[in-house]
Structures are given as C-alpha cells and as structure tokens.
C-alpha cells in the first residue's frame, strides 16, 4: 500500500519500547504481550496487516496462520537489537562470491504459485521458494490477501456518505473469531509441514484457498463437532434402541418381546443404519480433499496438466 507523502514515515520508526499506534506500521514484525484473557498468545510473533481506525485495533497475522485483532498496548515491535544477528547474516550473504560453473547444489529458482479463492472470487500470484513449506505459503497468502482487503476497506470508507454507510467489521476481524486457511491442489488438502516440491507444485500451479471463519473456544468446537456427526450419532442411538427392543432388554407391558424371525431381521438390518449415518455425516464435512467418504472422488476443476 502506497502511503500519502504527509503520512510517510522512515524505516527507523520502529524503536524499542514504541507501541503500534499508527496505520503506517502495517507490515512491521511485532510480539504479542500483556493478554490476560488469552495468555497462550503472549510471546507469539506476527506481522501487522490491518489497522482499524474506528475500533483502534491492529490486525496481526501470527506465524501460525492465526489472526488476532489486538489493542496497541498488546503489541511490542521487534527492536533493532533482536534483528542485529539477522542483519549481520544478511550482510555476509550479500557479499559477492566468485562462482564457477553452476552446480546441482545451487538453489532452484523461486516458484510462481497462483492462489485462487472462490468466495470472494479473486486470485493472487505469490512468488516463493521451492524449498518452503505449505505453512509459509499460507502465511504469504494471508498477508497479501489482508493487505488487499485493507485497501478495499479504506476505499469503501472513503466513498461512504456517512458513518451509517461505512463498512461493518468482518467477523474474522473480531476477537471472538479466528481465520483458518486451507490450500487445496488437485482435490487434496496440502499439509502445513510439507514442502512445495514434495506436493508437486511448480511455476504456474493453481491452488485453491479456502477461508474458514469460526468462533473460538471449547463450546464452539463441541457445537461444530455435533453439527458434523449428528447423523452418525443418531444412527447409533437407533441401533441401540432396536437391538434392545428385539433382544428383550426393554421389557414391560408397553414393550412386548418380539418373536424369533423378527429378532433375526432386526439384528441383521439395524447395523445398516451405521454406514448410512456415516454417509450422511460426510455431507457435513468442512474440509475438501480429506473426507470420511474416502471412496467418493470429485474431479478437480483444473490441474497443473491443463496449463
């Protein structure tokens, strides 16, 4: 994002002890500090990608691909002292080195990966090394995506006629929500710890990005699992009830004992409810390429062979 001349700041604006309070610091590396409600995020490193002037919150993309909206007091910029070793290493690597003939140990050229999202429909060309992991590609994509979205939000607020018409904050920007990114290639989800060259990605490969915005917390996780597996749980419950009725485990005046042919039929037919419940549960899976229904395959929209 190109800053106006009156708001441009030098590269040395990040000094020890200075808080992130200006939108010009987008792209700076920070450390999360002072969180009492979520102490597990303290000490995490990330990059400032969004600044919400209305809510006075900074959107931070952590190295673990999680996104948080935090107050400036909870962000500590990485000082120059912590980056001094990295600067010395970079200076050493920048020195000219006499090279002879190219050998097999030379680093391969970077790959140009096309990351496309379906909702909203947009694509980003990301240049990344072939030895990088899928997790690094996710972090690069999230940084590019949120930078573009931040510019779009700024344009929308500038064109708004009044405060009532300004864009409302997306639910992924709220503190109670988190954003998960999944990358799919040729119908299979790419694991975070795998390297690009191991996944068969090359220059021009198209990867589908799926953004999942969900609530945080144990209660929300239990609700998502119940919403996913309720057909299978219902099938198991019906199976137990039918077996109990047929075997006479449930007795009484209102529950007469079944005769032998009906008992045999129920014992043979009732277990069929379980695979049907498993099939119905597969329709509620959120992942693409990693399903309970491993025997169902959908052809991908476009593969690397079509390019």
From TrEMBL:
It comes from the Eukaryota. Keywords: Membrane, Transmembrane, Transmembrane helix. The chain crosses the membrane at residues 229-250, 262-281. This is Ubiquitin-like domain-containing protein. It comes from Chrysochromulina tobinii.
